[in-house]
C-alpha cells in the first residue's frame, strides 16, 4: 500500500478553491503531498490552503488565471522557489461558468470563453509545468474532463466538445511526454454533488435516477471520489499507466426505457 503514498511530493492543483479541485487537493494532502493551491479567487485559495495545513502538509496559495501564459509561468516560478520541484499537476480548471445556450443561439464570445477555460488552460499548464517535469525526468499530469463527452449536454455543445478535446489532448500528450518519464491521464467525472448535503442523498426511484442521466449506482459522485482516482493516477501504484481515461460517474448512463425495464430488478437487489 505504500505505493499509493505521495509523501513529500509537490502537487499543483488548479481550481483548488472549491469542488473537485479542493477535494483532490485535500485528498493529496491526506496521503502526504504538499499543495500549490492555484486559484483565481484569492479567498477560496486561502481557505483550501488552511485546510491543507491542518492536515500537516505545506500549502502555497497562488492567485492565477490559467488562461494566460505569463500568469501560469509566474505560478510555476513561485512554486519552484518554494519547493524546488513540481511532481504532480492536476488540470482541474474548466466548466461552463454559467454560460449556457443552445447551439443556434450561442454567441461567438461565449464559445471562445468556454474553449479558453477548458482547453487553453489545460494546454498552458501542461506545457509550462511539463518543461519542469521534463528537466526533472519525472512527473505526473492528470486532466479533468467530463461525463458530458459520452452523454452530451445539449445546452452547451461547445462545453462537450472542449471536454472531449481534453481527452484526446491527454492521449496525444501522454505519448509525446512518455520518453521523459511523464505520465498523463484523465478523469471524467459524472454529476458531482459539491454543495449541500441534500445532493448526497441516494436517488432511489427510476425517475430520480433518470434525472441524473440514469446513474446505475444510484447516486452522484462526490469530490472525494475524484480524489481517490487522482491519488491512484499520481502514485507509484500507477507507474505503468498513461493515456487512460477513468470515468468516475456511477456507471454508464442509461436511457429511460432501460431504467423502466430494470426498475423492479433494481429495487429487489438494492432493498428499496
Describe it for me?
The chain has helices at 19-30, 42-54, 69-83, 108-136, 157-177, 206-211, 223-234, 256-270, and strands spanning 10-14, 34-39, 59-63, 88-91, 139-144, 182-189, 245-248. The protein has 272 residues and is of the alpha/beta class. The chain has one domain (2-202, 219-254): Rossmann fold. It is globular and about 50 Å long. Mean pLDDT is 87; it is low at 203-207.
Overall, the morphology is globular
E-strand count:
7
Question: What's the CATH topology name?
Answer: Rossmann fold
Can you write the helix and strand succession as a string?
A: EHEHEHEHEHEHHEH
Q: Please report the distance between the alpha carbons of the first and last residues.
A: 36 Å
Q: What would CATH call the architecture?
A: 3-Layer(aba) Sandwich
> What's the average pLDDT?
87
Amino acid at each position: 500500500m505504500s505505493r499509493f503514498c505521495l509523501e513529500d511530493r509537490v502537487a499543483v492543483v488548479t481550481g483548488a478553491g472549491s469542488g473537485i479541485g479542493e477535494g483532490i487537493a485535500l485528498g493529496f494532502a491526506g496521503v502526504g503531498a504538499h499543495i500549490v493551491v492555484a486559484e483565481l479567487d484569492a479567498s477560496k485559495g486561502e481557505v483550501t490552503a488552511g485546510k491543507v495545513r491542518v492536515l500537516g502538509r505545506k500549502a502555497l496559495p497562488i492567485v492565477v488565471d490559467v488562461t494566460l501564459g505569463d500568469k501560469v509561468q509566474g505560478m510555476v516560478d513561485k512554486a519552484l522557489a518554494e519547493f524546488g520541484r513540481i511532481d504532480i499537476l492536476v488540470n482541474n480548471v474548466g466548466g461552463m461558468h454559467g454560460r449556457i445556450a443552445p447551439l443556434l443561439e450561442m454567441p461567438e464570445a461565449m464559445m471562445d470563453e468556454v474553449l479558453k477555460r477548458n482547453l487553453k488552460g489545460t494546454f498552458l499548464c501542461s506545457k509550462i509545468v511539463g518543461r519542469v517535469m521534463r528537466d526533472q525526468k519525472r512527473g505526473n499530469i492528470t486532466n479533468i474532463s467530463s461525463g458530458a463527452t459520452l452523454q452530451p449536454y445539449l445546452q452547451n455543445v461547445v462545453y462537450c466538445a472542449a471536454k472531449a478535446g481534453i481527452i484526446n489532448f491527454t492521449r496525444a500528450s501522454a505519448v509525446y511526454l512518455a520518453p521523459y518519464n511523464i505520465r498523463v491521464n484523465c478523469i471524467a467525472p459524472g454529476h458531482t454533488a459539491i454543495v449541500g448535503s441534500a445532493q448526497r442523498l441516494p436517488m432511489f426511484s427510476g425517475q430520480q435516477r433518470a434525472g441524473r442521466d440514469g446513474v446505475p449506482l444510484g447516486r452522484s459522485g462526490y469530490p472525494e471520489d475524484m480524489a481517490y482516482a487522482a491519488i491512484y493516477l499520481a502514485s507509484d501504484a500507477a507507474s505503468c499507466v498513461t493515456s487512460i481515461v477513468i470515468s468516475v460517474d456511477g456507471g454508464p448512463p442509461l436511457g429511460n426505457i432501460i431504467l423502466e425495464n430494470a426498475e423492479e430488478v433494481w429495487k429487489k437487489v438494492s432493498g428499496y
